[in-house]
Fold this sequence. Notes:
This is Glucosamine-6-phosphate deaminase. 31% of the residues lie in helices and 15% in strands. It has eight helices and ten strands. The longest helix is centred in the N-terminal third of the chain and has 16 residues, at 9-24. The structure holds fructose -6-phosphate.
Amino acid sequence: MEILIRDTPDEVAVTAADIVATYVRRGAVLGLATGSTPVATYQELIRRHREEGLSFAGCTAYLLDEYIGLSPEHEQSYYRFIRDEFTAHIDIDDAVVHSPDGLNPKPWLAAEKYDAAIRESGGISVQILGIGTNGHIGFNEPASPLKARTRVETLHAQTVSDNSRFFDSIEEVPTHALTQGLGTILDCEQPLLLATGFGKADAIAAMVEGPLSASCPASALQMHDRTTLVIDADAASGLVRTDYYRHVEESRPAWSAVDGRPVEA
Length: 265
Ligand code: F6R
């Protein structure tokens, strides 16, 4: 794993935007997470679009997950969220911003269809990810199968509680979601996980320095050879080997940008 530690959430957003922009410039398939963490990165990408001409016109996007039972118009649906926070402010064609169909009465079929669509698009290039306080990525909660495809998941009580801040009451938080499975996520070219704040420190320590285990679904990213984390010092505060991770970045050879590969490769 490549672990890039930044002093502040704003610096996390700049580094993450640098990485995403390399994919945007080649018209790649973007994997988009919702939640609060990537919003600053999306804002930085919007700024680069407006002020520096970064064009998303050649890109396609797939959301990581969607609540079951919320219509696309619902202000907390991820369909709505990603448009409000990101894609409505850039020049990507709205028709190619895809998300799982949370209203399909047969959600397991919606999951299969979504997974097939990702495959048929050629696969996700860069997959932006947040991490839950319990180590989930997407909505893959602890004990998720490590090789699963897009599927239906029951939200953990911790996730319902964490996400209730976006709803008027905890009772309104959906109990189920459609999520790319860990196997689907692992198929992407580069997972890019972002985390900020002390609240994520335990989850980051478990995913990076703990064992590969379904108990911490994010630890599945240990199996991907191009996983990059961009985290702030607070989220990194539970790690034991921060000196080494900083040393790896500082001693990166001039010919190498990410994991020993040129960024534009
Ligand atoms: C969002 C998602 C979730 C969040 C995670 C962290 O699409 O799949 O895994 O990334 O719950 O959420 P925040 O960033 O709000 O702390």
